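Long-time lurker, finally posting.

We've been working with MFS transporter (Dactylosporangium aurantiacum) and I want a structural starting point before designing mutants. I don't trust myself to interpret raw outputs, so I'm hoping someone here can both generate the structure tokens and explain anything notable. Sequence follows.
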Amino acid sequence: MTFPVWVLLIGTLVNTVGSFLMLFLTLYLTQKGFQPFHAGLALGAWGAGRIAGAFIGGTIADRMGYRFAMALSMFSTAALITALIGAANIGNPWLVVLAALAAASLNGIWRPPAQAMITEATPPEQLVMVMAFWRLAFNVGVLVAPVLGALLSRVSWDLLFWVEAGSSALFGLLVLTALRSVPPAADTPAATDEAAPPASYGRVLRDGAFVLFLFALLVNGIVYIQGPATLSLHLDALGYRPEVFGALVSLNALTVICLEVPVTKVTQRWQPRTAVATGMALTGIGLALWSVEMGIAGLVVATLVWTMGEVVASPSMFAYPGVIAPAHLRARYIAATTVANQIGYSVGPVIGTALFAGVGGAVFWICGALAAAAVLAVLAGIKTVDTVRNETNASTPDKTESSTALIADDVRSPREGAAVDGSVP
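Top reply, 14 upvotes:
Generated this for you. Predicted structure of MFS transporter:
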């Protein structure tokens, strides 16, 4: 992995370990004496702001550079979290909601440029594996953050969010200092492509195949989130204690952390649509198995199948948009992916719990059917390595093949060890 990638992996881990707002905001506000309604409204504003921030981040990054967008996101997030603390101590709920919305909107900016810079700085044949490591940094941070947050809350609830502001500022400093020498081509490809047509999200949405991919991500997000959103209700209806649900969720997290990188050593050799379609299919099968009453052992098997869907699909799923996007639209393509995924996660609990109220555990059979629709969209929407390479060569006849032309790199000659089907040894 290149130096910029290591910087972003470390920064991601630091930032995620210190991300407490989403986990503790409602409890923090109710401890401050706010009504549960206002606490829930602030949390909803945070979720909406994160989605809006991804849109904003894609535009800023493509126009002004990845490094600038990340630094802006982190420093402004730190400032607005301190404003949120002040609003909470004043006791004004509407200032808290406004501060949460603004902080989340600016916090959401950083991910598209970070992912775009990783794409620029990584050899194509290594990108799927690097994405697995990036997700590992996220997942380790997500595992540590609740424990650290609980410990800090014993000292002071305000300290919890001062630490989050500090971790954001630290990531911003890391971006400004450690990435200062990143070549311009790895910071903003738009600046080096004078012949590129005007950039906009409209151009992203005119890519019909990519829109099918976004649809698959949206549906997969709705399906996947039923694990944490609806499974607890299902287990309660079956008479299981809450500890069973907690154990299954922990099994999911530990399996992803332990297996995603080793499994990706295999799946990085696959065509992107094979990996993503297989993973989404496993997600649907795992959820459907939750509808079958097979005792604790059956729940464990279903959870592992559901989890392996995430493990198999996610690295290729998040690598794909950056490598098929035109250079001047790379951050926008990645932002569109983030938004589709986050919308699925946001509306999924509402849909799932409503369906559960009507059909009970059969909701997981419905999830299986939705997963099948997502698989079909992936097979129709994700281009093969050969298709991407041919399109790139046709659009740039006077240039050497773009470094972003493929994920599983098959441009090396057979004597260098590349397989003819696009895999790498």
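Before you design anything, note these points.
The chain has 18 helices and no strands.
The radius of gyration is 22 Å.
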